[in-house]
Batch of 2 targets.
Target 1
Amino acid sequence: MSARWVPYGKDGASEAGDELLAVRAAEGDEEAFEMLVHRHGAAMLQLAERLMGTRTEAEDAVQDAFVNAWRKLPEFRGEAGFGTWLHRIVTNRCLNLLRARRPAADLDTVPEPAAPDHQSSPVRVAESHAVGRDLGIAMRCLSAEQRVCWVLREIECWPYESIAQTVRISPEAVRARVFRARRVLTEAMAAWR
């Protein structure tokens, strides 16, 4: 889990550099945009993978988001940091893809995991993989909106206000979606308690 949400890179020093690179990229400087992609690509891929659930879908979403960002750079006004703006584009791309997905299997079709044997290390490793798999299955039962809000809050440790700005809803609506997502995931993962 991330320790805390930072809107731009790992330190504040990169924000000013991002703004200059964004201006240059908006003027058509492909090298400046390439530097922005290099600087933010890994973080955007990690975010997208958490939202989408698979690396392949995450890579597609990030690629689409960067293409969209390149096209929209002339509209970037710098009111928010470049990293925050890019997070919004990636999150919205993932949200659109999640909404377009077909509904996943009901929770009733998810097999109950076997009782763990805590005596051997390979079993613990297998159990850890099973928990991750079951959490992934349970997350597919969330609506796209719930999933995005839950991942940004619980995994990325974003403040409610930042999530609200990113997905363009009120902080109260974010809290409600996170609450409902927690409830669904708690029920789905009850066998692992």
Note: The helical segments are 13-26, 30-52, 55-72, 82-100, 121-139, 144-155, 160-167, 171-188.
Target 2
Amino acid sequence: MSGNSDEATAPGADWDALAASFDDEPDHGLRDAEVRRAWAARLASWLPVLPGDVLDLGCGTGSLSLLAAEQGHRVTGVDLSPAMVELARTKLAGRDAVFLTGDAAAPPVGEQRFDAVLVRHVLWTLPDPGRALRHWRRLLRPGGRLVLVEGVWGSVSPVGIPADRVTALLGPLAGQGRVERLSDDPSLWGREVADERYAVVVTYG
């Protein structure tokens, strides 16, 4: 999903049409070495230390999936866009990764359990984010963690979901969590940003 403060992409966008240019955004394609290093470092601090099973929901072209795979994790990526899924499969060819076309809110993974569920710039687009969070929580193994990267983008007509709303929705799910501000780190975005960008990491069990 797009996290560009200039053009936060509305729910219902044609992601197949956007797939070819999706990686042009610095935080999507991670083509710049500094941006890539910044995301790799953050991801290493959010995901389990030991190699495990990571579910990347709304995986787009698989840039974060690739970083997770490079850190030794087994990755399952899910995206609604078949074109995005194909690009992700190409990007992670030869890696321990599987990509599925499906709804991030109700991913087609059956009863499979994961050590981490990673979701970037997806929660704000969902009609019932609380329901999605409850479902994602059930996909975790004991000791698993939920990693949410979200924000509020734009100043004239801002879109997104504030951190305090996410933490309120997570409250009933009774995990041990923290909020990490990301707006102050331009290396993640390839430029200075002024809007609210953050990660919430919650560990269960």
Note: The mean pLDDT is 91.
